Amino acid sequence: DATHAEHIEKIKSRQYVGLENNIYFVPGHLGIGLVDGYDSMGFNMSKPHLRAELEADLVRISNGEKDAQIVLAEQIVKYKEVFQLAMEQAEKIDTALAQYLNTRPVAVAADEMVVNVPQSVTKCQRCRCNIVVKQRQPNGSFYLSCQGYPQCRCVLWLPSSIAGLEIADTTCPECGPDVRQLKITFQPGAMGQYYPTHHVGCLHGCDTRLLEMLGIQSIPSVFQERSMQQEQPNASASSSGYSSVSSNARSSSSSISNQPQRNVFNNNLPQRPSTNLRTQFQNSFVDNDSDDEYNQGVTNRGTNNGNNNNQRTTNNRQSWTMESNVNNDSDDVCCTCGIPARKLKVMKESVNKGRFFFSCSKPQEDRCNFFQW
User: Fold this and answer.
1) Is a pLDDT exceeding 90 seen at residue 293?
2) Residues of the chain with CATH 1.10.460.10
3) Tens digit of pLDDT for each residue in 120-155?
């Protein structure tokens, strides 16, 4: 096809190959050196395996057996990994070419060739891409994100009680060899007497006590919930889990407000230490898209009713207000204090305007940081 013809002309113009009698392709020194160099890296980049896998996936897309966005995310990750590995071993290409071009490669300091390749915690159950540790700026909080972004928007936000997070060299003996343990550094006193400042643990489900202390779900539970949301695209996004909210769901505040709300915290769990009661995170599992909107508006929320609106906002704009003319079903939703939450309505001009959410019902000075759509 046209693409293959362009590739052929390119390798000819770069003198990777030549033509004998204008019929037969003959590899040149540059072409042979590149093939030998790539083969010495331990993977057959010179072979058409990656292209063949893509062609097979394109056929599956045509047959309706595979989603195009998932295929795109998978292919990007595969090619990115090969590129990163090639960058780490670029000197092998220099060595191979030197044999055919009769030149000596220029020595490069090792510290100048370091390429930061993020390690994987586990695989995303939605798109099979790697889940990696990332750190937000400027607040420095940590989260786990799928490398299939933006096609896959799965993300797990972690509480700010975690001061440091690294992937350990060990795999989890309970969850299997495909799950890496995490080296967690807690803020001093954040976990009280329950955990030391430095702890090696797993977020895949085996360390249930750690998950309870952090107030998050296990990764498999989150992905199962994400899969159910994909099967029911019209359902509202849950307040926890690797969720992805569609544009239709965002624009339809009435349909979202009528959906049953779920508390991300289990009131039957053992009481956490007092230093961890005022959890500094909301909606541990949310969509990447909603995070910016949340950070922009959540600092303005409060018990805003009646005549004190102007007192609570310095910019003369009310972002959140009480919704007093609707059925308050907050009895089913409790905040981290263990009391029924208060139902509020978004009044800020945004995609979430008119949408209902739950917050702590205590006075502002005693209020915890609970937040749930």
Assistant:
1) no
2) 2-112
3) 888 887 778 888 888 887 778 888 888 877 677 777
Question: Does the predicted model carry a pTM greater than 0.70?
Answer: no
CA atoms within 13 A on the CB side of 79: 13
Write down the architecture of domain 2-112 according to CATH.
Answer: Orthogonal Bundle (1.10)
